[in-house]
Amino acid sequence: MADRICRWGILGTANIARKNWQSILNAENSTLTAVASRTTERATQFIRECQAEAPFATVPEAIGSYEALLSHPQVDAVYIPLPTGLRKDWVIRAAQAGKHVLCEKPCADNATDLAEMIEACRMHNVQFMDGVMFMHSRRMESLRAALDDGESIGRIRRICSQFSFCGPDEFFAGNIRTSSALESLGCLGDLGWYTIRFALWTMKYQMPQRVTGRLLATAGRPDSPTSVPVEFSGELLFADGVSASFYNSFQTWNQQIAHVSGSKGSLLLHDFVLPYFGGESAFDVFNATMDISNCQYNMVEHTRRVSVREYSNNKPDAQETNLFRNFSTLVLSGRLDPHWPEIALKTQQVMDACLESARNGSREVTL
What we know:
Blueprint lengths: L5 E6 L4 H11 L3 E7 L3 H14 L7 E3 L2 H5 L6 E4 L3 H13 L3 E4 L7 H13 L4 E3 L8 H10 L7 E11 L2 H6 L11 H5 L1 H11 L7 E10 L8 E10 L5 E7 L1 E12 L3 E4 L10 E7 L2 E5 L2 E5 L2 E7 L9 H15 L5 H20 L6 E2 L1
Parallel strand pairs: 1-2, 1-4, 2-3, 4-5, 5-6, 7-10
Antiparallel strand pairs: 7-11, 8-9, 8-17, 9-10, 11-12, 12-13, 13-16, 14-15
């Protein structure tokens, strides 16, 4: 590969691709060769607007079809932010074209489709990874250390997470996330992918034994064939009695909370998906004690804040830049890492089981 740089193509002009345009720019082992849309005009406009704020030395090429980008000789890897309903076909085509695949989430409509996508990547010797940015934050190293030190948390007993935003009227009227043809999993796919992934990561990817899900609200834009989940809760039961709950909604104000409780303490992240704007990522460890002396019952606070220097919002050390840096490093190494497709498939399998439960009166589903 030219000068040991991973050459990227973006398949689609979704808004999230604007963020990742700058992430590619700030990853020193990456460059952006081309952007494809359904028309050259649309790709050109996207490039012009992004280039004005975050310019590449060489302006990326505008391509008027996804097929043409996949045949581009100067593209090593593709980032695919297309709607989930279209993703399977284009991931498989990308693999067949020998392009490494960074896939937005949810990766597929169901685990059967995702398994087929992953197998295509394996057969054609290309890397597959989902676009969960928080996995690439340096904060995760400190978080894992606190979970594993035996004292901060002790034995893990409970994991709780909530990720939501409150969509305005126009969101429910026209956004692709309220169309079952484009995003059949609604808030469960868009937001639940993160909450489920956090629980699995905390449990070192041990799968839950049983799950339940509950459809709290559904909706669909006027042209949606059926409604999609817009408010959802789930419960995961692991071995040794560990449990996890999650809540996702398009109807509740911005929150991205993760809380892990154990036999000696608990830890809390207020911003586990997208760190609050600023120069550090942090979490709090709580080890409160009850001080009893005759009539006095005093709950004594013992709180420790753990932080890492890591700027948010696409900066060179931000988690989204690390995502593209880490993926490019894999591509340039010539070695595939099976960990990433494995955890994507596990996330999808748990999600499928939660949705199956919800559609059957919240009946428990065994994995």
